[in-house]
């Protein structure tokens, strides 16, 4: 079982996904406008990088839902309008504060509330801190891993920046409002590189774990 | 009068919706979805705005159409980093390895109407952070006029060149329309861009 990722023909996707640092972390790189059903055969973990044009994701929604229906994993990053096409996703816009760290006494708003989650065996919680693009409201049964309190202006009641949903579909849907591919691929914000340094090995391990689980299920069945 | 076509990639804070809502600029713009470009007659417009979130592989497939639009008198503004050159005169983005703030200092190399009255330091820093406007460079084509460069090595950042009877304005960083609310002289760029595209090509 393999790790696949979509890309959208932007510079930042080219640099982050096809560039030398991470290219070998993916078994399959798919130019999103050309995605076809066969491309997802044998794919355990499919990654939708941040800022992939939402028009493509709405177009390919049947394939993405089918991937989840097969019990596989879909990871969706920020600014892809997941709330418009992915099951159970609810999101509230919050203007991005990219300069918070320059304000006196600055503390990041986000908190990792499940440091014991397997993702954080690979990703340093500090490497999840740069900024975020709105907040998610996880559906019942999903695990929020990183959360933020309500916006001081009262725009929202707070919510998650990353959650792990193993209940809404037969598969596993991980949704985040972080945008690491854009920033790493734009040579801007080093925390995003540290995030991908951990996240992509996690994706590999998750795909291998999926393969082992399937084999043992087949053996016992 | 609508005379400018902008390719929209559905990025909420990309400045596109702010631009379209502006009473002075919005009525001049038609936004078209990235993958609906084939349905649009480019000849109906004076200018085409291509930003950093565009699918460059898709544009490579439309290169002849876009070049035909420019060479017959159109204006194209390209901003962002180039991975797949989709227009004559464009080359791949070259990052500055391990840059420091001094490497990101924007320097004016020549005057251009779009940047009239825009202070280079308002381009270098945004809320005190350097790098939004430029953090790498592109090689300009022969005959191009370099407008801004970066750092002591004066690496080309913004430049203008001609294709046939038309013109290309290239900015190698974050989209110019993300500066509409910059709170300083950088806000002048977009209104001046529209004034410039409406002026005769030899202006």
Plain-language structure description:
The complex is a heterodimer of chains A (221) and B (203). Chain A is α/β, with parallel strands linked by helices and 221 residues long. Chain A has one domain: Rossmann fold. Chain A contains five helices and ten strands. In chain A, the strands form two sheets. In chain A, strands 2-1-3-4-10-9-8-6 form an eight-stranded mixed beta sheet, sandwiched between helices. In chain A, strands 5-7 form a two-stranded antiparallel sheet. In chain A, strand 1, helix 1 and strand 2 form a beta-alpha-beta unit. Chain A is globular. The two termini of chain A are 19 Å apart. Chain B has 203 residues and is of the alpha/beta class. Chain B has a single domain, classed as Rossmann fold (3-Layer(aba) Sandwich). Helix content of chain B is 17%, strand content 25%. Chain B contains five helices and twelve strands. Chain B has an eight-stranded mixed beta sheet with strand order 2-1-3-4-12-11-10-6. Chain B has a two-stranded antiparallel sheet with strand order 5-9. In chain B, strands 7-8 form a two-stranded antiparallel ribbon. Chain B is globular and about 45 Å long. The mean pLDDT of chain B is 96. Chains A and B meet through helix 1 and helix 2 of A and helix 2 of B.
């Amino acid at each position: 079982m393999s790790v696949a990722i979509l890309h959208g023909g932007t510079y930042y996707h080219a640099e982050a996904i096809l560039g030398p640092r991470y290219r070998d972390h993916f078994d399959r790189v798919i130019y999103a406008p050309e995605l076809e059903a066969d491309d997802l055969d044998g794919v355990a973990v499919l990654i939708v990088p941040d800022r992939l044009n939402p028009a493509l994701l709405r177009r390919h929604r049947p394939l993405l839902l089918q991937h989840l229906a097969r019990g596989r994993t879909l990871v969706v990053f920020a600014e892809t309008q997941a709330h418009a096409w992915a099951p159970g996703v609810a999101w509230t816009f919050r203007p991005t504060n990219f300069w918070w760290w320059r304000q006196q006494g600055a503390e990041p708003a986000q908190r990792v509330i499940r440091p014991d989650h397997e993702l954080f065996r690979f990703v340093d919680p500090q490497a999840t801190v740069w900024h975020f693009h709105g907040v998610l409201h996880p559906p019942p049964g999903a695990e929020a891993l990183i959360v933020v309190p309500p916006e001081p202006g009262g725009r929202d009641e707070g919510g998650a920046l990353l959650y792990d949903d193993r209940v809404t579909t037969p598969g596993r849907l991980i949704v985040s409002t972080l945008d690491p591919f854009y920033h790493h691929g734009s040579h801007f914000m080093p925390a995003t590189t540290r995030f991908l340094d951990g996240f992509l090995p996690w994706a590999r391990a998750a795909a291998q774990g999926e393969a082992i689980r399937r084999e043992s299920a087949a053996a016992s069945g | 009068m609508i005379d400018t076509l902008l390719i929209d990639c559905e990025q909420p804070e990309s400045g596109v919706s702010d631009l379209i809502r502006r009473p002075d600029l919005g009525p001049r713009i038609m936004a078209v979805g990235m993958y609906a470009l084939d349905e649009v007659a480019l000849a109906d417009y004076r200018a085409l705005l291509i930003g950093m979130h565009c699918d460059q592989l898709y544009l490579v497939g439309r290169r002849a159409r876009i070049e035909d639009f420019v060479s017959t008198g159109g204006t194209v503004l390209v901003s962002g980093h180039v991975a797949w050159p989709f227009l004559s005169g464009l080359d791949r983005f070259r990052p500055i390895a391990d840059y420091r703030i001094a490497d990101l200092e924007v320097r004016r190399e020549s005057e251009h109407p779009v940047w009239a009255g825009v202070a280079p330091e308002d381009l270098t820093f945004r809320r005190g952070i350097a790098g939004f406007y430029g953090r790498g460079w592109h090689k300009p084509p022969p005959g191009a006029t370099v407008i801004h460069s970066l750092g002591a090595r004066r690496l080309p950042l913004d430049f203008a060149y001609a294709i046939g009877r038309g013109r290309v304005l290239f900015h190698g960083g974050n989209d110019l329309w993300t500066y509409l609310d910059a709170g300083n002289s950088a806000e002048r760029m977009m209104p001046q861009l529209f004034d410039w595209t409406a002026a005769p090509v030899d202006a």
